[in-house]
Task: inverse folding
């Protein structure tokens, strides 16, 4: 026999937003010679990076979303060539242009990918035929949307510029004439390039002068038509080697690099200088070295005018290739606001820094946990938070809310906490539950899947308890790695109960049932699932799940969470025992509540999916979700409301309900937003009196469920 459910308690749902949070690191395994050489922000708030992974390189490109998760990666095949990817450029059509050169022949090479990482074109048809090698090259997008490529030739004092079509990769122009000065012996490097607001670009690097035989840094400014606007050279106390350039908001430039002693080549110090829009130097600052070979690799101006500088240094001498990194935050005049050594790994080679539109900074390069460079090397992209803080932890980090360390915070993590509930271990120095990687000592104990218990201690207090679920709620839906879900159809099914009739508008409760063919489930410890309602008539703000009278245990025996994603009329839910003891059971595990409009005439569905169940030893049960159809019963008002009258209406202190005959049942009073105010039983009466003196003025709903009547009436309380 079907049960008629119209009345239930409601609970407040937690509404979540799936946004990226805080700082992160993205790693791709590579050889010691691999690195992420350039980075660019994408339209969706992610980062795209290019570089190479081995000593026989090919263009490697990866797209990382705003949470630090790799969305796609590709290696661009170029038969018979080995290419270094030096620059990645975001095109207006959403695609990405990669530019660089061949390792052996120093011939340029270009490729374009669409937004999904699929190859659109390469320049191989013409660039493979260039006979004169072009070294130390950099590329940028011009104001007309095409590509400018600039390089130099071996021991030469002039530049070569190529203009390449961004539409098909064809060669548009080849210019080989510009020089900094006829007094130069040769141009040592083109270290970096930056676009300018007039559609052109500027480059920086180092050059050897004559007759002093000293190294100077330079800036060359080019217009959009590839004509040279101006050039200037800059000296420091010794040899000045520029490494990075950034265009400033006032159309000037910042360059960073290193000042190297001519007598002792290991004695280097970082410098930063600033110019005006004409290239005239405004200031020059030096920064004390804390290691050998100190180098100011790159510099970025923030929207508030402050400056970030990434510096590196270290031994660089085999077999000890240890490198360290230091991040400086500077005023607009180059004074130090703060500086911090950044060394979460033995080798930290970070040579690019850029400002992100959200106020954070992006860095790229290579890191390694092996100072010999033999193993554990990673192509690296790092993003700070808006305060400029970099992630302190890179390897084996605790991400609060990801208790099973599978890469995201979801209902599986409630199950993971339940499996090791009550365990104690070491506390975490950083005991916040914000979504970034936290360094934590291993507890030594692990689940059957090999996950150390430290990950379940989400709040870092050294005790695994209900308190750790707060991190799941705070970070629900966030991710820091790829994750794929297993699906299957089995004898064990979780579904919304089909034995419910939907009659009239208002609040409704539908049990979520755990079913096995003909029997109890032998052993279950916890489960998680999603419940989705498909109807335009559901008020999404009223959708919730409660766990009263669950067959998995009492309130004292269970931990449970329900997190509503109101925009999709979806609730993520999970419950798990706390005593490391399985239970043999089947039946109701939860109730789904929602409010629907009285105008509801269309049938709707409740879909239960994303289901996972575990035993106390973390073995997965084969379980599937199911979809339940609910027809809406029309033409039933005459039955459900037959003979039921309210008076007076509006009412002041007492509301009377006149029943058609003597009845037994219950009534409840609700707000129009679906909140239960009070309920009571009545027996053997046809007249019910309800005291409403304590209700605030307003409109309310009263619901009656008795022997022969199911009714819902509206009334107004007045003074």
Result:
């Amino acid at each position: 026999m079907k049960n008629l459910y119209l009345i239930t308690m409601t609970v407040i749902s937690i509404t979540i937003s799936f946004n990226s949070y805080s700082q992160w690191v993205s790693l791709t395994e590579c050889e010691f010679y691999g690195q992420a050489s350039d980075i660019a922000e994408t339209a969706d708030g992610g980062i795209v990076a290019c570089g190479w992974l081995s000593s026989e390189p090919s263009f490697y490109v990866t797209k990382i979303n705003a949470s630090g998760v790799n969305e796609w990666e590709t290696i661009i095949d170029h038969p018979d060539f080995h290419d270094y990817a030096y620059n990645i450029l975001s095109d207006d059509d959403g695609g990405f242009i990669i530019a660089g050169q061949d390792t052996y022949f120093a011939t340029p090479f270009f490729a374009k990918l669409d937004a999904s990482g699929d190859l659109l074109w390469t320049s191989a048809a013409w660039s493979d035929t260039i006979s004169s090698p072009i070294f130390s090259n950099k590329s940028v997008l011009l104001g007309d949307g095409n590509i400018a490529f600039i390089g130099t030739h071996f021991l030469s004092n002039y530049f070569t510029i190529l203009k390449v079509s961004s539409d098909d990769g064809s060669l548009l122009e080849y210019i080989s004439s510009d020089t900094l000065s006829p007094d130069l012996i040769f141009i040592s490097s083109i270290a970096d390039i930056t676009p300018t607001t007039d559609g052109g670009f500027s480059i920086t690097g180092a050059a050897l002068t004559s007759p002093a035989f000293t190294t100077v840094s330079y800036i060359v400014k080019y217009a959009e038509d590839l004509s040279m606007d101006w050039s200037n050279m800059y000296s420091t106390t010794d040899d000045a080697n520029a490494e990075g350039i950034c265009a400033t908001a006032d159309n000037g430039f910042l360059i960073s690099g290193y000042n190297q002693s001519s007598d002792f080549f290991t004695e280097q110090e970082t410098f930063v200088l600033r110019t005006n829009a004409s290239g005239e130097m405004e200031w020059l600052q030096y920064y004390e070295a804390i290691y050998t070979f100190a180098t100011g690799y790159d510099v970025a101006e923030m929207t508030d005018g402050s400056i970030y500088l990434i510096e590196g240094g270290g031994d660089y001498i085999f077999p000890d290739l240890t490198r360290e990194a230091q991040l400086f935050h500077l005023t607009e005049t180059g004074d130090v606001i703060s500086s911090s050594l950044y060394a979460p790994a033995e080798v930290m080679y970070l040579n690019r820094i850029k400002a992100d539109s959200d106020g954070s900074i992006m860095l790229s390069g290579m890191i390694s946990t092996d100072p010999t460079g033999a193993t554990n090397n990673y192509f690296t992209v790092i993003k700070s938070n808006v305060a400029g803080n970099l992630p302190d932890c890179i390897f084996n980090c605790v991400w609060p809310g990801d208790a099973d360390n599978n890469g995201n915070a979801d209902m599986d993590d409630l199950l993971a906490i339940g499996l090791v509930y009550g365990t104690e271990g070491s506390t975490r120095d950083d005991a916040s539950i914000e979504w970034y990687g936290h360094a934590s000592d291993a507890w030594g104990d692990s689940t059957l899947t090999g996950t150390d218990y430290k990950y379940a201690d989400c709040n870092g207090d050294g005790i695994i308890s209900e308190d750790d679920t707060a991190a799941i709620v705070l970070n629900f839906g966030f991710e820091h790695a790829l994750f794929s879900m297993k699906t299957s159809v089995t004898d064990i099914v979780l579904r919304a109960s089909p034995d419910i009739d939907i009659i009239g508008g208002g609040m409704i409760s539908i049990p979520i049932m755990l079913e096995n063919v003909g029997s109890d489930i032998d052993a279950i410890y916890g489960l998680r699932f999603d419940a989705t309602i498909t109807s335009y008539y559901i008020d999404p703000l009223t959708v919730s799940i409660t766990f009263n009278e669950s067959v998995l245990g009492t309130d004292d025996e269970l931990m449970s969470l329900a997190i509503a994603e109101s925009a999709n009329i979806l609730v993520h839910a999970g419950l798990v025992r706390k005593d490391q003891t399985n239970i043999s059971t089947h039946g109701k595990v939860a109730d789904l509540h929602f409010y629907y409009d009285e105008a509801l005439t269309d049938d709707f569905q409740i879909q239960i999916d994303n289901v996972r169940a575990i035993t106390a030893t973390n073995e997965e049960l084969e379980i599937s979700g199911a979809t339940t159809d609910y027809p809406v019963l029309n033409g039933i008002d005459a039955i459900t409301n037959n003979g039921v009258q309210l008076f007076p209406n509006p009412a002041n202190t007492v509301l009377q309900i006149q029943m058609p005959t003597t009845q037994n049942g219950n009534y409840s009073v609700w707000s129009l937003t679906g909140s239960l105010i009070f309920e009571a039983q009545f027996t053997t009466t046809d007249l019910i009196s309800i005291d409403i003196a304590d209700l605030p003025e307003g409109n309310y709903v009263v619901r009656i469920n008795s022997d022969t009547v199911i009714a819902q009436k509206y009334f107004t309380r007045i003074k």
